[in-house]
Design brief:
mainly alpha; 0% strand; globular
């Protein structure tokens, strides 16, 4: 077995393993830096005694499943009804650049659009709505997490669309759709019956990644999600930020619970795949030709376009707010333009941007190196290739929140030991 593929595997699984180890120990009561030595189930007892846990768990599960399902439906129906057409190419050009937009930026943009005092309400007021002041409506950070779900959908649709387009090249879609249409099937129905099973088999891992991410996301949940209580991932971050180091035990227990929720949701999704496959076989055997294809395809294209325009308009309103002076409601535009905000926060922004670029370059280089090794070397060793592909899924399945908690705990332990030795 060659050493370089093993090095690639270690690079992918090493941080995950370190994070898991740093989470498991405090979750079971062992954190010497906080004066705690396990094993103990007290962190789990404290976690389950938190009054907001049932609501936080339900919020994480519902938003994750709903965002993934809606995003997948939009992408599949748009691709089925419009792939290869001019409207589809236009939508593809709109959505492709949006993949690079950070989730937090898209979430802030959506918040500034749909808030009671947001740009949509301003454009419609007072002529359409009759409002001369913002209405008392809970839209952003609603208790059901609908705004948070919408924020996830507008960002995951471009990702899944590009993944689906990549898979289409291996599915022989044009020939299959042509044959189906020659047999009397509508464009959308023919695509779903002949192409979708092959495409979904290839995009299944990215769909799982979307589900795992949507359930454990923090930035979008902080901006658009409820806070009384917040989602479980946000609450874990709050516990980790508590000055009392003992709260990190409860945070570690919460991270393990978050992992269990993700694994359970993935298992539930897999059962749903089996059920949909069984129903799909019956639908195919029934021979329905698809009388509503035009209407369904039109609605799907509308939602796809809406998701693209939402992000674009959100970025536009963010840019306007960044240079806005006084902007009273219901004015559609600010009374004056000023660079005061940029001058006040510019130095800190430039410093943060530099750190962000540095991290992005280093991480991208390491990922490119690992992928190159996997493709060029591990392909010759079946066992290593299987492990490497498993490692590629290990990160999303354990989700970033879990191993970040573990790495932070390990850092605290190592830092405490270093200080203790220095005092000696």
């Amino acid at each position: 077995m060659r050493p370089l593929p093993l090095l690639t595997l270690l690079a992918m699984l090493g941080p995950v393993a370190a994070g898991l180890w740093g989470t498991l120990l405090p979750a079971f009561g062992h954190l010497p830096a906080a004066g705690q030595s396990g094993p103990s189930l007290d962190p789990f007892r404290d976690l389950f005694s938190w009054a907001g846990l049932p609501r936080a768990v339900a919020l994480s599960i519902s938003t994750g499943l709903l965002a993934t399902l809606i995003s997948l439906l939009i992408v599949v129906l748009v691709t089925a009804g419009w792939s290869g057409t001019r409207p589809f190419r236009v939508l593809e050009r709109l959505l492709s650049p949006l993949l690079s937009v950070p989730h937090a930026a898209a979430a802030f943009g959506l918040a500034f659009l749909i808030a009671p005092s947001g740009w949509i309400a301003r454009l419609l007021s007072p002529g359409v709505t009759g409002w001369d002041r913002p209405p008392d409506l809970l839209i952003v950070q609603d208790s059901w997490g609908l705004a948070m779900t919408a924020g996830l959908v507008v960002k995951e649709v471009p990702f899944l669309l590009l993944i689906t387009l990549a898979a289409l090249g291996q599915a022989d879609a044009p020939r299959s759709v042509t044959i189906a249409q020659a047999l009397g099937y509508g464009r959308l129905t023919g695509w779903l019956k002949t192409v979708f099973p092959r495409v979904y088999a290839q995009i299944r891992p990215p769909v799982y990644v979307v589900l795992a991410y949507s359930m454990s996301v923090v930035d979008v949940a902080v901006i658009l999600g409820p806070n009384t209580p917040p989602s479980l991932s946000v609450q874990i971050v709050k516990w980790m930020s508590d000055p009392d180091l003992a709260m990190r035990l409860q945070a570690a227990a919460g991270a393990l619970l978050q992992l269990a929720l993700v694994v359970g949701a993935l298992a539930f999704w897999r059962l749903g795949e089996v059920a949909v496959a069984a129903l799909g076989r019956r639908w195919i055997a029934a021979g329905s030709r698809g009388r509503l294809d035009g209407a369904v395809a039109g609605v799907a294209l509308g939602f796809g376009t809406l998701s693209a325009l939402t992000v674009l308009l959100g970025l536009l309103v963010l840019a306007i707010w960044s240079v806005a002076g006084f902007w009273g409601f219901p004015d559609a535009l600010p009374d004056q333009i000023t660079l005061r905000n940029w001058m006040r926060h510019g130095p800190g922004t430039i410093e943060a941007l530099g750190e962000t670029v540095l991290i992005a370059v280093v991480v991208s280089t390491l990922i490119s190196w690992a992928i190159g090794l996997e493709n060029n070397l591990a392909v010759t060793v079946d066992s290593v290739r299987a492990l490497t592909q498993g490692g590629e899924l290990a990160g999303p399945l354990t989700q970033s929140l879990l191993w970040i908690v573990g790495l932070l705990v390990l850092w605290v332990v190592l830092a405490t030991r270093s200080v203790t030795r220095g005092l000696r």
